[in-house]
Design brief:
- It is built from eight helices and twelve strands.
- By secondary structure, it is an alpha/beta fold.
- It has two domains: 118 residues, Rossmann fold; 95 residues, Winged helix-like DNA-binding domain superfamily/Winged helix DNA-binding domain (Arc Repressor Mutant, subunit A, Orthogonal Bundle), CATH 1.10.10.10.
- A five-stranded parallel β-sheet has the order 2-1-3-4-5, sandwiched between helices. A four-stranded antiparallel β-sheet has the order 6-7-8-9, covered by helices on one side.
- Strand 4, helix 4 and strand 5 form a beta-alpha-beta unit.
- The longest helix has 16 residues.
């Protein structure tokens, strides 16, 4: 699968935009630039890109609000740019549906690699048993189409949410640590384990009858998470 695509870079710092653009173009991506949230939303509405690189600290409409509005109608992958000390904002961004993040100051080469990785995962059918449909009672995943259906309702899942749910359902009954899930679903050798926690919370809100008392995605204390079939 191709790792190249149309990337919208949203940052109010012209130097950052230019550096990121050059590295992404060297990697073969088409790049569009926006300096604020309002312009970014207009560009997404005009022609949805394959991925957004989105700074959280923007003038006017900030990055969190941009992410929230986009997630109301789109599952386009989003890689956030956050300052080193903005852990709360980073977690908030993940809760709103961002797929990945890079902390400032960052290596432009690392960012380009992250963008390629997220695009590749968004376009690749995740590893799973040979079944193209994975089911559990009223929850169905159509793997090839990357669709999740609960009852008669199609769920709006981000790339990471779909991959995580598919992995857990395909390995029902087995407990995985957050470190293992980061490696197997995100492809990260290291990273903030709260990323997994936030994505599990978002999945529970979408698939559990009572997210406060989850019946499907169980917390295994001292280990991590396990998917239990209905």
């Amino acid at each position: 699968m191709s790792e190249q695509g149309h990337v919208l870079v949203v940052d109010d710092d012209e130097t950052v935009r230019d550096v990121v653009r050059r590295y992404l173009e060297l990697a073969g991506h088409k790049v569009t630039l926006a300096g604020d949230g309002e312009h970014a939303l207009a560009l997404v509405a005009e022609s949805e890109p394959d991925l957004l690189v989105l700074d959280l600290m923007l003038p006017g409409i900030d990055g969190l609000e941009v992410c929230r509005r986009i997630r109301q109608h789109s599952a386009v992958p989003i890689v956030m740019l956050t300052a080193l000390g903005e852990e709360e904002n980073r977690i908030a961004g993940l809760q709103l549906g961002a797929d990945d993040y890079v902390t400032k100051p960052f290596s432009p080469r690392e960012l380009a690699l992250r963008v390629g990785s997220v695009l590749r995962r968004a376009r690749t059918v995740p590893a799973s048993p040979s079944r193209q449909v994975v089911t559990d009672d009223d929850l169905t995943l159509e793997v090839g189409a990357r669709k999740a259906i609960l009852g008669s309702t199609e769920l709006s899942l981000t790339t990471r949410e779909f991959d995580l749910l598919l992995f857990l359902m395909s390995n029902a009954g087995t407990a995985f640590s957050r470190v293992e899930l980061l490696a197997k679903v995100w492809g990260w050798d290291f990273g903030d384990q709260s990323t997994v926690t936030v994505h599990v919370r978002r999945l529970r809100e979408k698939i559990e009858a009572d997210p406060a008392k989850p019946a499907r995605i169980a917390t295994v204390w001292g280990v991590g998470y396990r998917y239990d079939r209905a």
